[in-house]
Amino acid sequence: MILNQFLALAAVLFCIGVYGVLARRNAVLVLMSIELILNAVNINLVAFGAFHDTVAGQVFALFVIAVAAAEVGVGLAIVLLIYRNRQSVDVSELDMMKG
Description:
By secondary structure, the protein is an all-alpha fold. The longest helix has 31 residues, at 56-86. The chain has helices at residues 3-23, 27-51, 56-86. The protein has a domain at 26-90: Helix Hairpins. The relative contact order is 0.14. Helix 1 runs antiparallel to helix 2 (27-51).
């Protein structure tokens, strides 16, 4: 397989993730879309690392995976607190928390 195929796959995943972040109103689906974006970045890092015969891309991908795991933990905790207080995880209702 050549590099272009991996870049096309990553571009499709990134576009789906951006659409999910911009169009969804549910906070859990927004978090899943952010994970799609991070997975697209991981595909690019590993593909370019393999293309240049280095392990740097895989090392950076591991760091991105660690950051994504921390983001999921914190993000789900925030979503659970919002659901506990508002009985909904609709993102459009979160502007009422300003103050």
